[in-house]
Write a structure and sequence with these properties.
Elements: H1 8-25, H2 44-56, H3 59-72, H4 77-93, H5 95-101, H6 106-113, H7 117-150, H8 154-172, H9 174-203, H10 210-213, H11 215-225, H12 238-252, H13 256-259, H14 268-286, H15 289-302, H16 312-316, H17 318-326, H18 330-368, H19 374-396, H20 403-416, H21 418-427, H22 433-448, H23 469-486, H24 492-502
Length: 508
């Protein structure tokens, strides 16, 4: 959907959305390190759920998921099941327990639970790498929208998009970004569902709940145009489908910026109900994304457009293409573009803030400047925020893959490292520092070793890196268990803390 002119009406809607968020964000400002990216005010359980959903809803969810359905049909269901299943896993196994630790970042948790500065530093480095990979996926989504809005090529759009992200966070202030997340979610959900309802109505489908009405479009595509891509496991094996699904599930329960949401809630019940509300808000988007992929295909077929089944750039823009081909007014496309920008900005701001918090709290005062004051940490966090933005921007200049595919690699790394560290750290008192360090290092190797398949052909038999946690997470857990049993147990103090404070038992 390449355009050569500036899209004035959609651009005006996007600018209006930015003005709304900035006005909201300027109500507060960040002055203390304790508020920089790791804290926020209490806003009720629904507010926590909306913030979780906003924090979670990214360019991968808003643009990439529909694009994946557009391109690969049923295969994309692995993303829906994996991402939502990850939140269920988080709810059942970790949400309330994480809150009981009372720590602010994932590295902070690892350092406290495993009583190891080395483990904490390693977790901080992994969190930063996850931030960079996931941020590249968000920057790609931002660049695609900016490219369409301004009628410019992808490369300058990456630079413009990066400048907008940094400018947005700097102007609003770090605390303002956190408070904007609720507002961003409600803008996002409205922007995503309203055009879908209008498209379904125009096509004569059940439009009140288009999430249930688009099945007729799948039937029409098959009967009228002979296009069928909804058959399960038609393009990949069931093993690869499950591998991706479980990788995304483990990764969701291990993403640092998702886990950090539970550190700041005021109570254990708030953490639990915040996840429940968050799941509901997230589900509203996920029920809708497949419909966009299907309707984009249908409009292409009815318009005589050759079904482009291989171009990832076209697929990532399927949401906007569907509305444009439908003939809906420009403001509908502008609303979607604003929603996509909101989703990407919300997530990338949270990611960069989490990454900068990991550096300023877990690396800077411990390895670089031991006597750093709170003000020094704030400056370190802001400086590293800018450095991260530049790194992510530079990496985004190369189109590594679809938005959802790039994001999946970040999930794989989180599923192979942070998830096992949290899982055993909460539920197995015998897990120790040597075990978690060995496990996280093994997880890093497992995540990236598939990229060496070109030099080592036997590695091509392994699942791709984006699906590696299906096998990798259990292997890492085994490594942690074996190394922990072969080395000294944790201190009695931490075992007593787990028994009394985390699991509400008096046994040691």
């Amino acid at each position: 959907m390449a355009e050569s002119a500036v899209q004035l009406v959609p651009l005006a809607i996007v600018v209006g959305m930015f003005a709304l968020f900035i006005a909201s964000g300027l109500r507060t400002s960040s002055r203390q390190a304790s508020e920089y990216g790791v804290a926020g005010g209490y806003t009720g359980r629904i507010g926590i759920g909306a913030a979780i959903a906003s924090n979670w809803m990214s360019a991968a969810s808003f643009l990439g998921l529909a694009g994946m359905f557009y391109l690969k049909g049923y295969y994309a269901m692995a993303f829906v099941v994996g991402w939502t299943g990850g939140y269920v896993l988080l709810l059942v196994l970790m949400a309330t327990q994480i809150r009981r630790f009372g720590k602010y970042t994932a590295p902070d948790f690892v350092g406290f639970r495993y009583e190891s500065e080395a483990a904490r530093t390693l977790a901080a480095i992994i969190a930063i790498v996850i931030t960079i990979i996931y941020g590249v996926a968000q920057f790609r989504g931002i660049a695609l929208i900016v490219s369409w809005l301004f009628g410019i090529a992808y490369t300058p759009a990456v630079i413009v998009g990066a400048a907008l992200v940094v400018g947005f966070v700097v102007v609003s202030g770090a605390l303002g970004v956190a408070r904007n997340q609720k507002l961003q979610y409600f803008v996002l959900i409205t922007a995503f569902i309203l055009p879908l309802m209008l498209m379904a109505r125009k096509l004569g489908y059940f439009w009140i709940l288009p999430q249930f009405g688009y099945g007729a479009a799948i039937r029409d595509l098959q009967q009228q145009f002979g296009f069928a891509w909804s058959e399960p496991f038609a393009t990949v094996s069931s093993f690869h489908w499950l591998a991706l699904c479980f990788t995304l599930m483990f990764g969701t329960a291990g993403l640092p910026h998702v886990l950090s949401r539970f550190y700041m809630v005021p109570g254990i019940r708030d953490a639990r109900w915040g996840v429940v509300w968050g799941l509901f808000f997230i589900a509203l988007i996920y029920w809708s994304a497949p419909a966009y992929g299907v309707l984009a295909r249908l409009f292409e077929a009815r318009g005589g457009i050759v079904l482009n089944s291989t171009d990832p750039m076209v697929a990532d823009m399927a949401v906007l293409s569907a509305v444009r081909y439908s003939g809906l007014p420009l403001w509908c496309i502008g609303l979607l573009a604003a929603g996509g920008m909101s989703a990407a900005f919300s997530t990338v701001a949270g990611l960069l803030l989490t990454g900068s918090a990991s550096f300023s709290y877990d690396i800077y005062p411990r390895l670089i400047r031991p006597n750093a004051s709170e003000v020094d940490k704030v400056y370190a966090a802001k400086g590293f925020f800018l450095a991260l933005a530049v790194i992510v921007m530079a990496l985004s200049l190369r189109p590594w893959g679809m938005i959802a595919e790039i994001a999946a690699l970040a999930f794989a790394l989180a599923g192979n490292t942070i998830f096992p560290a949290f899982l055993l750290g909460i539920w197995w008192g015998r897990a120790n520092a040597a075990g978690v360090i060995s496990g996280m290092l093994a997880g890093v190797v497992i995540t990236f070793v598939p990229f060496m398949a070109g030099a080592l052909p036997f590695l091509s038999a392994l699942p791709p890196a984006t699906s590696s946690a299906f096998i990798g997470a259990p292997l890492v857990i085994l490594v942690m268990v074996a190394v922990s049993l072969l080395t000294s147990p944790p201190s009695e103090e931490i075992r007593r803390f787990l028994a009394r404070n985390v699991h509400d038992t008096t046994e040691e």
